Amino acid sequence: MQATKPPLSSARHQGIKTHLYLIGNSTEGNCVSADESLLDALLLSAVHLTWEDCSWKGLLKYDVTMCETKIIGGEKDLLNQFNDKWNLSFPAEFEKNTLQPLGPEKPTHMKILRENLLFCIASGEKESCQSQLIPSHAIPMHGFLILVNVNPVEYGHIFLVPYGTKQRQEFWHKEMFYLISRFAKENCNCSLKVFFLKSSSTTPDYAYFQAAYFANHLPVELLTVINVYDCKDNKGVSISELADYPLKTMLFTS
C-alpha cells in the first residue's frame, strides 16, 4: 500500500501527530484474512505498545488479562469476570475529561490525547480504492480517534471517537456508520467486536463506539434468530429478531 499525502481539510491540535489510516473506497475490502490485514496488525501493535506504556505510567489500575473469570452454567453459558477495580463511573469521567474538551484546546485534554491516542482512521480520497497508512500525520477533521480504554473489560478495549464537526452529535450520520463498518470489515479479525453504549452522563449524548478482542463468540451471537422481514428487493438487507433474549434485539444483515 503506497503512502501518499492526502488533501485533507485543516487539522486541529497541530502539536499532536499520529499514524493515519485512510480507508479506501473499495467495497471488496483490503485483505483476505486477519493474517493479511494491515489494519489489524496496526491495531494490535498499537494496543500492545500503548497498554504497556500506560501500565508503566500507572494509568491502568489493573491487568484485565489476570482477572478471574467464571462460566455461569445454564443454557447460554454466560461468562462472569471478577474485577473489583473496574470503575463504574469511568464512562462519565471519560466523556467529561476527554470528549467535551475536543473543541477548544485545553492542556488537560492535550495530555490525555498524547497518552491514550493510538492512531486515527479516516476516509481516503474518493478516487482512491486502496487503503493507505501515513505515519506521523496531524489529526484530520472528520475522522475517528482510536483511544486506549484504561478501564477495560477485555484485551484491546478501545474507544472510537468521531473527531471534528461530527464529534458531538445527538444522532448518527450515515458517514459514521460507513466508516465504522469499513473499520470492522477491513480489520478482518472475527475476534474484534465493535459495539456502542449509550452515553451515561447527563450531558448531551456523545455518539462514540467501543471495540475489544474476544477469544470466543459472545452468547448473543449464537442465539436463534426469527426472520421478521426479508428485504431481498432492498439491497439485500434482511431483518431478524433474536429469540429467547432478555432485551428486544433486532438483527440487520447485509
From TrEMBL:
<dbReference type="GO" id="GO:0080048">
    <property type="term" value="F:GDP-D-glucose phosphorylase activity"/>
</dbReference>
<dbReference type="InterPro" id="IPR026506">
    <property type="entry name" value="GDPGP"/>
</dbReference>
<dbReference type="InterPro" id="IPR058866">
    <property type="entry name" value="GDPGP1_N"/>
</dbReference>
<dbReference type="Pfam" id="PF26217">
    <property type="entry name" value="GDPGP1_N"/>
</dbReference>
<dbReference type="GO" id="GO:0005085">
    <property type="term" value="F:guanyl-nucleotide exchange factor activity"/>
</dbReference>
<dbReference type="GO" id="GO:0000166">
    <property type="term" value="F:nucleotide binding"/>
</dbReference>
<dbReference type="GO" id="GO:0006006">
    <property type="term" value="P:glucose metabolic process"/>
</dbReference>
<protein>
    <recommendedName>
        <fullName>GDPGP1-like N-terminal domain-containing protein</fullName>
    </recommendedName>
</protein>
<dbReference type="GO" id="GO:0005737">
    <property type="term" value="C:cytoplasm"/>
</dbReference>
<feature type="domain" description="GDPGP1-like N-terminal">
    <location>
        <begin position="45"/>
        <end position="211"/>
    </location>
</feature>
<dbReference type="GO" id="GO:0016787">
    <property type="term" value="F:hydrolase activity"/>
</dbReference>
